[in-house]
Write a structure and sequence with these properties.
Blueprint (H helix, E strand, L loop, with lengths): L5 E5 L3 E7 L11 E2 L3 E7 L2 E5 L2 H9 L4 E4 L2 E5 L2 H9 L7 E2 L2 E2 L6 H13 L6 E6 L7 H17 L3 E6 H9 L7 E6 L4 E7 L2 E8 L3 H12 L3 H11 L9 H27 L10 E6 L8 H10 L7 E6 L6 H12 L1
Parallel strand pairs: 1-10, 10-11, 12-15, 15-16
Antiparallel strand pairs: 1-2, 2-4, 3-4, 5-7, 6-7, 8-9, 12-13, 13-14
Helix pairs in contact: 5-10, 6-7, 6-8, 8-9
Bound molecules: adenosine-5'-triphosphate and magnesium ion.
């Protein structure tokens, strides 16, 4: 196996592939050129459309990943969101809460399709893929998920190893502090947290409130589809606005709820841990993931944390340079370092 390794963020919301930027893999997805790494991503979602030859032809021409099943076309990835919105329905989701969605019978099949569209006909690679830390009380969910994803990637011919999502964020963002600090990924299904000391993960855990919780709660409160809420949230939500728009008012309520759950969860976990090293200095905390992206999020989070009697002295709290790609980049760095 001579070719370069890859990092894969297997996220509830998005699958992100990171490669060293000297080359490209796959035949679909969005390629974003960074200085040293290249990323492609697809939404981890699908939607079924009635089959017509015209639709199929256009999808092919536009390089949209799809498969034909009987009288239906299954559209995978990024375009699923728009089609679901146009058809007034929800996207279907292979994962929920950070792991394979047990109530989606097609989850594994469709996730495989999305992975295949990102990886293309790549020759065998070394791939490091992200797995979440278990939410308290639900350890088994991650064990099954981790194994199923490993098998799936092995069946595609790759040599694979998993990496904890929070640790991947540390590898991506905290080189300057010799990988000592707290990496946080605020995603769709979970917020993952990892405290690392000189690159060794000391404590990892996840909190089950993240972007999907915000969308589902706002959907219940307003009667709008969660998919529609999510589109509004991603396109023009920010903090500290005086919104006349009800959806945005509701979004900010549930966003605060998520931030509070994250801060309280971190405070409790770090206070309870017996394994906590006695740091001789303050350590940094870095926030990544799509849910950390709205303007004003960092301030809101800082305020909540400062009010919380947090048990660890922090030198700074900052956002990752590229919040949507930090996990995949960290997984790639782990693979490259072996
Ligand atoms: N620009 C944006 N503004 C606000 N929210 C966003 C933005 N972009 C993405 N999101 C939200 O971020 C969440 C997805 O984040 P991310 O891609 O980091 O999750 P994931 O890694 O797929 O999920 P997880 O790690 O929980 O399994 C979704 O709830 C999405 O709506
Ligand atoms: Mg994630």
């Amino acid at each position: 196996m001579n070719s370069q390794p890859l990092g894969l963020d297997v996220g509830t919301s998005r699958i992100v592939l990171a490669a060293p930027s000297t080359e490209t893999t796959g035949d679909a997805g969005i390629g974003i050129q960074g200085p040293a790494y290249q990323f492609r991503s697809q939404l981890n979602a699908f939607v079924r459309l009635p089959f017509t030859r015209i639709t199929e032809g256009v999808l092919k021409k536009e390089n949209v990943p799809y498969s034909v099943q009987g009288q239906e076309i299954v559209v995978h990835g990024n375009e699923a969101e728009m089609f679901a919105d146009l058809l007034g329905k929800e996207m279907r989701r292979p994962m929920r809460g950070g792991v394979l969605n047990a109530s989606e019978p097609e989850g594994e099949t469709q996730l495989r399709q999305i992975m295949e569209s990102l990886l293309g006909n790549s020759e065998p690679r070394k791939i490091y893929y992200s797995v979440p830390a278990a939410p308290a009380g639900n350890e088994d969910s991650v064990t099954y998920h981790e194994t199923a994803i490993r098998h799936l990637l092995q069946q595609l011919g790759h040599e694979v190893k998993s990496i904890n999502e929070g640790l991947a964020v540390v590898y991506s963002e905290l080189e300057d502090s010799n990988y000592t600090g707290i990496g946080v990924s605020c995603g769709g299904g979970l917020c993952n947290v990892c405290l690392s000391y000189l690159s060794v993960p000391v404590l990892s855990f996840s909190i089950a409130k993240a972007g999907d919780f915000i969308d589902a709660s706002a959907s219940q409160a307003t009667g709008e589809l969660a998919n529609r809420i999510r589109i509004t949230k991603e396109s023009d939500f920010y903090f500290n606005g005086h919104f006349s728009d009800r959806v945005k008012q509701v979004l900010s309520v549930f966003y605060d709820d998520m931030i509070q759950a994250l801060v309280v969860g971190m405070k409790d976990a770090f206070s309870a841990s017996k394994a906590m090293p006695k740091f001789g200095r303050r350590i940094p905390m870095v926030l990544s993931g799509g849910s950390a992206m709205p303007n004003g999020f960092l301030d809101r989070f800082r305020t909540a944390l400062n009010a919380s009697d947090f048990p660890i002295s922090l030198s700074e709290i900052r956002l990752a340079n590229d919040p949507l790609h930090a996990t995949a980049k960290g997984a790639l760095l782990a693979a490259l370092s072996e």
